[in-house]
Design a protein that fits this description.
Blueprint lengths: L1 H7 L4 H32 L4 H29 L4 H28 L3
Length: 112
């Protein structure tokens, strides 16, 4: 019974657009911060940055994952901004191969 009530729930458009905007900014800042950490590691060769980078990857994955799930649910429940919601979900997903690439670069260049 509660599930049917959830399907009938409608979030107002202002809140939808706010979630979309927050998700876009989070995806952008996740990529920027990850790039800064990678370049700092590459330029300094400081092995202390490796665990910081790994911690950041996990933290960003959790935050981006929560936002992705919120957008996924919103895409199911909303009929008005569905295209923009799905586009924002794809923007969040771009961070996954970027993180894998950065992690591969860091692991490859880290001296044993």
């Amino acid at each position: 019974m509660k599930f049917k009530a959830l399907l009938k729930y409608k979030m107002n458009e202002k809140d939808q657009l706010e979630i979309i905007e927050i998700s876009k900014k989070t995806a952008k800042f996740s990529a920027i911060i990850g790039t800064i950490i990678l370049f700092a590691f590459l330029l300094s060769k400081n092995n202390l940055l490796a665990p910081i980078g790994i911690f950041y990857i996990f933290l960003a994955a959790i935050i981006n994952g929560v936002l992705f799930m919120a957008l996924f649910i919103l895409a199911i429940l909303s009929k008005t901004n569905r295209y923009e919601i799905i586009t924002t979900m794809l923007i969040l997903l771009i961070n996954i191969p970027l993180s894998i690439l950065y992690g591969f670069i860091a692991i490859t260049l880290t001296p044993l």
